[in-house]
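Exam revision sheet. Question 4 asks you to relate a sequence to its structure. Input first:
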Amino acid sequence: MPEIIILIIVLAILFDISNGWNDSANAIATVVSTRVLTPTKAVLLAAGMNVLGAFSTTAVAKTIGTGIVDPKAVTAVVVAAALSAGFTWNTAMTKLGMPVSASHALIGGLIGASVSYGGIEILNITGLMTIFSALLISPILGIMLGFSLMKVILKIFGTLPAGTINKYFGKLQLLSSGFMAFSHGSNDAQKVMGIITLSLVSAGVLHSVDVPFWVILICALAMGLGTAIGGWKVIKTMGVHMLKLEPVHGFAAETSATAVILGASQFGLPVSTTHVIATAIMGVGATKRLSAVRWGIAGKIVLAWVFTLPVCALLAWGIYKALLLIV
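Answer key, structure tokens:
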């Protein structure tokens, strides 16, 4: 296997670890902030379910492998630049405690590096339109489902004492948190599988975008490892600073987000699990009162989302040009 492909695999593993590190908050921020699980137990549960979710489907991997650019129209250096940009952004934002979309980072990086290599004409515009539609619609579904499910729960159980509600929904949150982690693995781990497969096809190692088992395995384990590390600053931002959560709120947010993410995974659509769970939390919080959500924190999160794709595209564009001087 060419040395550049080995480099790509190493970069892909690092990217997946950084993805899990930032996105661990997606699965456990609510269950930790509501004190249903200790942080250690929460990250172990999330890591295990992440790995299981990564084995559930490869539909998203195939979309990433062919939907952004033709695998035969790019080089391994393009893929290396895209992964480097995404890894750099994920790591920087996790250090700052900001939840960001690894999906936007990876897609933006691949777009920027591809354009740097062959111009805008090598992009798959039709595929990108489908991907962007999924990325834009999924957070809207997250906030709508979060709001609606919380309203239904309050309608049915709202007359019960708060202690009773939280007792039972605390137990249910163990399930919702586990399924949230599973859905995260089913969508996010797939993206790097698609990138590695894309590079193998572009290098002539593979002849079709069918994800090998060993690629699934290393991506699943890398995602699980990153989640197990736990991005504690991001967890505080999502589970404490943005909204004061109780178990019933955590259950509603996680269940809503899981429904959106698993649905997208089955159709092979890459979505941002970060965007979906964050908007679901906002929707749940809005049922209490709009002021319950700390919109200043939410605004900073949204700003980070907006900048992720273009910044990573520009970063990958520059990294590709720099790599040409080396390889």
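Marking note for examiners. The two ends are 16 Å apart (CA to CA).
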